[in-house]
Amino acid sequence: MSQTLIQEVKTKFISVFAKEPLLVFSPGRINIIGEHTDYNGGFVFPAAVDKGIAAAIQKSDVDGCIAIALDLDSEIKFELDTLKPSKEGSWENYVFGVVAEIQNRNKIIGNFNIVFKGNIPSGAGMSSSAALENSVVFGLNELFELGLTKTEMILISQKAEHNYVGVKCGIMDQYASMFGIKNNALLLDCRTIESEAFEIDFKDHELMLINTNVKHSLSDSAYNDRRSACESVAELLNIETLREATEEDLEGIKDKVTPENYQKALYVIQEIERTQQAAKAIKENDLEKLGALIYGSHNGLQHQYKVSCVELDFLVDQAKKNKHVLGARMMGGGFGGCTINLIAKSESKAFAEAAAKAYKNKFKKECSVYFVALSEGTHLVK
Ligand code: GLA
User: Fold this and answer.
1) Which end of the chain is flanked by fewer CB atoms within 10 Å, N or C?
2) Number of structural domains, the chain?
């Protein structure tokens, strides 16, 4: 699948710019558990997947730069020295933001052209944005020999999202997309930005995604609101991030925070704990335990952190009714996108069909089912 994408961007690039481009593939990600913990300095458990963004990129000898989003059939011309954010929600902000953040680090780049195309459905909660940002920074680093480390590159991608896209995201998506390892998930400590790789082989079980195909608006502002709520509780506790807090610490300031913010902070503290427990369960091959933690994560996201939506809750409830699904939860920022399900391989097809039928009945729209392979991070394609 990604081979076809690579071929498409390459062909387009050559037909428009008459030059051989550098080819980059940058994957999206799933996340087994650990949601909204990254910007709280906590643990997350993502993996890069075999869906993502393919980019063809090369230096330009003429004035200005051109970026082409092939799947949107959209093209934009821009100058390196007059960059500013485009209107909210525009795809070019991912490109502009990365370029601007590279320049902010006093790294010199020249004019370039880029053609990209992706196969992650947008709004699926599988980080098509991080994949795009990483493809741009990775490509420019190669082309202009910037000497950036992978960690520097993901920090650039993250800052692009903060300053040009306007989402104060954590580091999970950019990290997973850049550092992914085939067949592995990464237990990432977002305080140190270091991870431990876990080979994922659930034997007769597998991970299955179901996309609600909805993305409720306001999700970006709701995301930023959650982040500042967490930061304000951390400030009250006199700590850097909620990673440093225990449930007892939080109890101690209960009368100083709103009940809503108390629940949100409690969720974060508990989710960080669940994520570490999930790593232990995987090591011990205890899939029942892992599944229970995954359901626990959804419960917290739904009732305490309040970032789920009726479509996601419905799919998780369908999963709970099926004993072959060991765990299910919403994945990513929330307010739409996918659920991730830990399910017996022999039952996944039947469950997918039943859930899709029930979903259609209830919401009068289709959901989509994906199986993904855990794959390597952002890389050059020869
Ligand atoms: C989005 C953000 C990530 C992370 C998740 C929630 O995907 O980009 O940094 O916070 O939401 O876990």
Assistant:
1) C
2) 2
